[in-house]
Design a protein that fits this description.
Blueprint (H helix, E strand, L loop, with lengths): L7 E13 L4 H12 L30 E17 L5
Antiparallel strand pairs: 1-2
């Protein structure tokens, strides 16, 4: 009889590219600061975050939001944790 697999969790650091439409670099910096000042979690499940959506819209598309995240992201670090306690 085979043993049931366990579920492990991992804390990972994800690097993403943000795109900001602005008239100047200083305006872009301020827009980005305002968009990220309260961020700790971005819910990518629906990829529908009003302040910073994850989008693959082309750069020249007029529908490109003022601030958006590229859908391509990189995992920088992985730290495996002990098995997750599962409920019966």
């Amino acid at each position: 009889m085979s043993e049931q697999p366990q579920l492990y969790s991992a804390d990972i650091v994800v690097a993403a590219t943000a795109y900001v439409k602005a008239r100047s670099e200083s305006e872009a910096r301020q827009i980005l600061v305002d968009a990220t000042k309260d961020y700790t979690v971005i819910n990518a499940e629906g990829a529908d975050c009003e302040e910073m959506p994850i989008t693959g819209i082309q750069f020249d598309d007029p529908d490109l939001p003022v601030v958006s995240l590229s859908p391509i992201m990189t995992v920088q670090e992985t730290t495996l944790k002990t098995p997750v306690e599962l409920c019966d």
